[in-house]
Write a structure and sequence with these properties.
Number of helices of chain A: 9
Order of helices and strands of chain A: HHHHHHHHH
Shape of chain A: elongated
Number of strands of chain A: 0
Helix content of chain A: 55-70%
Oligomer: homodimer
Largest sheet of chain A: none
Largest interface: A-B, 42 and 42 residues
Radius of gyration of chain A: 20 Å
Chain lengths: 197, 197
């Protein structure tokens, strides 16, 4: 069976178009907000609206797919799997990295929190993806808290992600640079109180 | 000197129009986000666009004025001035009230945080008003922390408003109801560690 050049290159071209679109959606929605227009997205991606609508029927679908794509990439916040860190050190790692990223002028906070705050609609597909990704982070904290000996790992995880979201939101709007290890010192105090060593 | 009926009622009518507009802006931008359209705002307020543009030249100006108006009203979060509470109890009061408000289905988090997250532009007049109002809350925490004997009241205030924003953001997107006094218990732990009694 032979393939024509068209048949063999089409999927690649579509994949490239999809990638460029989702990159533009991620960048522009993070920088300017979810109300960024479809025209601006297509222009930034160098993709026609016709091509866009072949791949996605709504902007919300694109927003959701751009979050999925971002979450599938390695996170700069998570410690290396084989880093030899204790559960408590792994938790601290996340907050120390967040503090390093926070002062950047391009930083607008956690993209998954911002998406939910902006859309104000838990039924929106992009809100649902964002909520799921944050629940995964919360479960990650919970598992580390359990391994670290917390009496109530679920409650510790709720506290940690609250600090995470508060820190990233305040840094994202430029209200606090988190300098002086503001967030990680709070986390250290909370872990002490919760018996996570 | 006599006034014609027109001359005496005009200022009242304009004030009423302004009030209705700002109430609609506050309600709809909080519920649906800052991208709410001028047509929807005028319709909800029962005001013509012509009347609106006599009062405000841009939507951002209206957003800013609606936050000013909201902040000028008595806050349900702050303890009564003559309540006889200690500085620490006054801090706890704020977080306990926030926990009571959080589970409401209409709750979308702190309106001043949400506005800044959504606008993503510190130069926007509405962002500037929102940032100023939150700095006032931070200074309020700082003064109470100082009165309560904190070693570093400024740092305590940064921690408290971080918890405030994290709690209100997570409750506002429906990620956490704050049940079990999640935020106030964290604040209590942090105040213990900071020497605020």
């Amino acid at each position: 069976m032979t393939q024509t050049p068209t048949a063999s290159t089409e999927p690649t071209a579509a994949a490239g178009t999809r990638e460029r679109l989702l990159e533009a959606v991620a960048t522009l929605s993070y920088r300017d907000g979810v109300s960024v227009g479809v025209d601006a997205l297509c222009k930034a991606a160098g993709v026609s609206k016709r091509s866009m609508y072949k791949l996605f029927s709504t902007k919300d679908e694109m927003l959701a797919a751009s979050l999925e794509r971002r979450a599938a990439q390695p996170s700069a916040l998570l410690p290396p799997a084989d880093g030899g860190l204790s559960p408590r050190e792994q938790i601290m790692y996340v907050f120390e990295r967040a503090e390093e990223i926070a002062p950047s002028p391009e930083y607008r906070g956690c993209p998954y929190l911002a998406m939910q705050v902006e859309l104000k609609d838990a039924e929106n597909p992009a809100s649902q993806v964002a909520a799921r990704i944050k629940r995964e982070l919360q479960r990650y904290f919970e598992e580390l808290a359990r391994q670290g000996g917390a009496e109530d790992p679920q409650r510790v995880a709720r506290q940690l992600i609250l600090v995470f979201d508060g820190a990233s939101a305040r840094a994202g709007i430029g209200a606090d640079s988190l300098e002086g290890h503001l967030a990680s010192a709070m986390v250290s105090t909370l872990l002490d109180a919760a018996g996570v060593h």
